[in-house]
# Entry
Amino acid sequence: MHNLIPKPVLATPAAGSFTIRSNTKISVTPGTDEMLKLGHVLADVLQSATGFATPVAAGDAAPDSGGIWLSLAGAQTLGGEGYALTISSERVTLSAAQPAGIFRGVQTLRQLLPLAGAGVLAAGEIRDTPRFGWRGVMLDVCRHFFGVDDVKRVIDLMAHFKLNVLHLHLSDDQGWRIEIKAWPKLTEIGGSTQVGGGKGGYYTQVDYAELVAYAQERYITIVPEIDMPGHTNAALASYAELNCDGVAREPYTGTEVGFSSLCTGKELTYQFLDDVIGELAALTAGPYIHIGGDETAATKTADFIAFIERVQGIVEAHGKQVLGWEEIGQTKLRPGALVQQWNTNPKLMVHTRQAVAQGARVILSPANRVYLDMKYTPETSLGATWAGIVDVQDAYAWDPATLMAGVSESDIAGVEAPLWTETCKTIGDVEFFMFPRVLGAAEIAWSPATGRDWDEYKVRLGAQGPRLRALGVNFYRSRQVPWA
Ligand code: TNX
# Structure
């Protein structure tokens, strides 16, 4: 129990152990399709650890002999994602108030099971609830495109560490990655390239719906981002009429930022966004649409403010809430809007404070801590350095509540680790940038602040090495970590 990541709120070992055997059964309460499905998720975990196929059935107690019970009964204080796990020599009981809590608890069981050999679970009790409701990863699929299978791989690996939001950065200067039926050239032209001039790619709406469903089965919400008014060269290359001068831009395959802008004074821009946001909202299971808003050097401030205020209304008209990079804090925010902090220059952090002063909550993505595209050391072959060098300790040894003066625990919705992909080309690169730093972000977002300590964490992280290897993850073997 002492090697779990994220660290549970309370873990109390006891004497004895429970062994998964060929006759072990799983029962679920209530016997709904969703709970039966969760029973099978656990059965798959047990099968890969032990080889035994464990049957799953509805039942209102632990099965008589050698039983595991997944239950939604009597755990009302555990919130939307919390769970309680009791392991004794006779039975294993995993209870939660909601199915998502059962799923999170199953991930704990996955880490408690030895990697190979007998399925022995040490006895004890865990009671666990997340500190923050938003525990995210962002993947930039614009600078380099990543197909459906790559994104599923990211979702699978996120689920192991109780991460629950995948933010997909779907449009930027170098690529437009989501099919919009009313504007087909966005993907025909805007989706046809990427950084360095490769062939790019895009998700059809069918592909995207498949990703949303795949994530939902793992209790992960996909948050789509259409970046605007800057970072829009791919759209401006696709449709001449979106440009103020009516001239289509050339497709862009470089890595500069801040040169493009939608034409904020043109009515067509808002018809375009109404179509795009409407189609995207229909594909989106969660409440949020991310409207970007970062690095708008090519848009006048007054135009930016009027634009963002108007676009918020479009998002609301399609039944969704707005999320944007911290720059949107300088506009009048609608109730319920979220801002995503990323700058670490104190002078630039003013927009986040402006947002908080309006009652908005914040997702923390401090670039010098959780930007997954930063180099680990100066020698790391891929990656950027503009926000600093971010080794595993830098990514872990910080706390949300003390990051920014004027932004306290209750202002914070959670933590998100963005992976920008200017230098990241393959799923192997994605894994290398994410792992192991993303485990630190997962723990910061889930586990209580008290008791979090790098020297203790690095040992638990080292113990995850064999698990990451077994999953085939291409992770960075940081010398800061005593890898097992
Ligand atoms: C800044 S952070 C950006 C991205 C780049 C990233 C590279 C933010 C909101 N915008 O456009 O990809 O730096 O690290």
Observations:
- Residues 33-50 form the longest helix (18 residues).
- The chain has 15 helices and 17 strands.
- The chain has a mean pLDDT of 96.
- The chain has two domains: 10-128, 134-470.
